[in-house]
Amino acid sequence: MMTEDKRITYATICCKDYPLCLTVAAEQKIIDTFGGLEAMANRMTEGEMGIPMTAQLAHILLEGGNKRVKALAWMEGEEADTRDVPPLEVLMDVLDLKDANELGSKLFEAIRVSRGVTVEVAEDAEEGKNGETTQE
Fold it and tell me: Which three-class secondary structure state does DSSP give residue 133?
């Protein structure tokens, strides 16, 4: 039985759950497509990223999640229990504005979870800092 992978987030697309993960290969595709994680995040938060760009990012993270699930299953000598990643054209055909908005928050969550970064807020405001970043 495969161990639960805490680096994977699941998104529901057309009533089906798909794994999302920011792998090294996925990050390279984000660099090639958007100019990097920071540039992509800026475009998303500034509202410059419409449904087509959200679909592109989703496709990249879906591929990363799918390949990670399959690789980890292979490493444990098991069969992967995951469905194929829909082609980008199919994602663009099925996503609407509501879907893209819901998926956008899952994409940010997947990036955060995959990187293993959490923010801890200091309880004492006099310490002079709001929080510190740690690796999980």
Answer: strand
pTM over 0.70: yes
For residue 62, which amino acid is it?
L
Tokens of 97: 């504005």
**Token pair for 136:** 């999980």
User: What local confidence, expressed as pLDDT, does residue 3 receive?
Assistant: 66
pLDDT bracket for residue 127 (50, 70, 90): very low
Contacts of the segment 46-53: beta carbons below 8 A, 24+ positions apart: 49/104, 50/100, 51/92, 51/95, 51/96, 51/97, 51/100, 52/92
Please give the DSSP secondary-structure letter assigned to residue 122.
Answer: -
User: Which CA distances in Å does 58 have to 40, 74, 124?
Assistant: 12, 24, 39
Q: How many residues does the chain have?
A: 136
* Residue 113, token pair as written in the block: 């979870």
> CB count, 10 Å around CB of 66?
21
Longest dimension (CA), the chain: 53
| Number of alpha helices (DSSP H) and beta strands (DSSP E) in the chain | 5, 4
* Adjacent-strand bridge partners of 17: 12
Q: Which helix (H) or strand (E) holds 70?
A: helix 51-75
